[in-house]
């Protein structure tokens, strides 16, 4: 389970940026939190709103860049378990509108939990070369932090447990040492860390090609879960089948006790989107994975988006600590009956084209108080009270006045 992700000098983000899944001490949707003894409670969902060009997608690209950087070298050698679901490698591009940052490394750090342990992984990359890297751990609730390894340029320093095994410290300068260890050794801690990275799911529904990338649930139990979910959404698909010879998916509908088979592409955009996205989301819920999706709301009716959010919020369904981070333009879900205040985030870009993010819980009113959890979040957002105003009303009014004057 992810606790926190931070990065610096990546695409439109110049300064250090932190996205936090650690829950604030607020009352709403308390039963949706992931709880563990001796540890802070974690959020199951996070959504990022903001105008086009504000940095929403680049935030998700930063997470995707880190995950693909670690997983792809292992996957290319077919050393993974085959469970990774990410679309493509994301290039590590620094903030280019500053002479200093152009020549400085991009930094990533992720803090996560798995199997009773907490891990922090840090990596700094410049022109594809690993400048720094480290991996530390401790037991959940423990006070002592242990070093698994650290790296400064070409010098790798193994921690005590790896040093005993006399691991090779000579590694390609462009290869993460974590990936190198996952490829060449079978250490339980490294296997545990890499398995977490491998389990992360990355999807981008702003890309129309993804509408045709299917994760087909063949297991009868998984298939029944999907069909039941579709029926919950009033999508009356009785069954589906995948023709491996034709590499095509067909949907089956039942009308007057007669079955009719249709090619997948005959379905509506919304139905296709659910058939593409739901199997991945159900897999994540069943296995407790972290899912990152750009524009999850694309081609989805608001009630379908609410349904997906509720799947992750429901502790009876989300029993294994699955987490969902996505971007959205759909303000119909920016409601106090859908999200906690610490689950709603905003991305915006300043006049120097530098992106920043902040959560709704971080915002204070004129009296220095947090936004109330009974507020109409969507209405106040459109009024510009949270910043990151998607409609840029004042600017548009200035442009209109200038056009009229001409």
Order of helices and strands: EEEHHEEEEEHHHEHEEEHEHEEEHH
CATH class of the largest domain: Alpha Beta
Q: Strand content of the residues, in percent? A: 15-25%
Average pLDDT level:
88
Main sheet makeup: 7 strands, antiparallel
Spatial strand arrangement across the major sheet: 2-1-4-5-6-7-8
Number-wise, the strands total: 16
Q: What fold name stands as the CATH topology of the largest domain?
A: Rossmann fold
Q: Based on the structure given, which CATH architecture of the largest domain is correct?
A: 3-Layer(aba) Sandwich
Radius of gyration: 23 Å
List keywords for this structure.
25% strand, 16 strands, 7-stranded antiparallel β-sheet, alpha+beta, 406 residues, 10 helices
Can you describe what's shown?
This protein is α+β, with helices and mostly antiparallel strands. It has two domains: 2-200 and 289-393, 3-Layer(aba) Sandwich (Rossmann fold), CATH 3.40.50; 213-269, no CATH class. 28% of the residues lie in helices and 25% in strands. The chain contains ten helices and 16 strands. It has helices at 56-76, 99-102, 160-164, 177-184, 188-199, 220-232, 269-287, 302-313, 377-382, 393-405; strands spanning 2-8, 17-20, 45-49, 106-114, 117-126, 129-139, 146-152, 155-158, 201-204, 239-243, 248-255, 258-263, 290-294, 323-327, 344-349, 355-359. The strands form three sheets. The chain has a seven-stranded antiparallel β-sheet with strand order 2-1-4-5-6-7-8. A six-stranded mixed β-sheet has the order 9-13-14-3-15-16, with helices on both faces. A three-stranded antiparallel β-sheet has the order 10-11-12, with no helix packed on it. The chain starts with a strand and ends with a helix. The relative contact order is 0.16. Residues 208-213 and 391-399 have low confidence and may be disordered.
């Amino acid at each position: 389970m992810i606790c926190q992700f931070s990065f610096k000098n990546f695409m439109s983000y110049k300064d250090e940026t932190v996205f936090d899944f650690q829950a604030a001490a607020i009352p709403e949707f308390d039963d949706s939190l992931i709880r563990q003894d001796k540890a802070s409670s974690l959020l199951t969902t996070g959504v990022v709103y903001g105008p086009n060009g504000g940095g929403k997608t680049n935030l998700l690209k930063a997470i995707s860049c880190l995950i693909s950087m670690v997983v792809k070298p292992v996957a290319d050698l077919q050393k993974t378990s085959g469970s990774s679901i990410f679309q493509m490698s994301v290039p590590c591009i620094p903030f280019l509108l500053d002479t200093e940052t152009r020549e400085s490394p991009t930094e990533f750090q992720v803090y996560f939990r798995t199997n009773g342990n907490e891990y922090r992984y840090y990596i700094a990359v410049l022109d594809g070369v690993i400048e720094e890297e480290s991996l530390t751990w401790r037991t959940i609730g423990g006070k002592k932090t242990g070093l698994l390894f650290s790296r400064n340029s070409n010098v790798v320093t193994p921690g005590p447990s790896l040093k005993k095994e006399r691991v090779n410290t000579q590694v390609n300068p462009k290869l993460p040492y974590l990936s190198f260890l996952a490829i060449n050794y079978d250490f339980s801690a490294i296997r545990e860390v890499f398995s977490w990275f491998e389990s992360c799911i990355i999807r981008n529904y702003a890309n129309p090609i993804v509408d045709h990338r299917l994760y087909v649930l063949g297991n009868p139990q998984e298939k029944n879960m999907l069909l039941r979910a579709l029926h919950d959404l009033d999508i009356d698909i009785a069954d589906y089948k995948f023709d491996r010879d034709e590499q095509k998916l067909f949907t089956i509908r039942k009308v007057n006790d007669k079955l009719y088979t249709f090619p997948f592409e005959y379905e509506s955009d919304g139905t296709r989107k659910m058939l593409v996205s739901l199997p991945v989301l159900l897999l994540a819920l069943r296995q407790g994975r972290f899912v990152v999706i750009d524009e999850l709301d694309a081609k989805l009716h608001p009630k379908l988006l609410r349904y997906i959010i509720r799947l992750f919020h429901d502790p009876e369904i989300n029993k294994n600590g699955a987490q969902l981070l996505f971007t959205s333009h759909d303000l119909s879900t920016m409601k106090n009956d859908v999200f906690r205040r610490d689950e709603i985030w905003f991305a915006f870009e300043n006049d120097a084209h530098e992106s920043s993010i902040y959560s709704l819980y971080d915002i204070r009113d004129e009296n220095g108080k947090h936004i109330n959890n009974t507020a109409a979040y969507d209405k106040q957002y459109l009024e510009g009270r949270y910043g990151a105003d998607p409609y840029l009303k004042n600017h548009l009014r200035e442009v209109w006045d200038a056009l009229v004057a001409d």
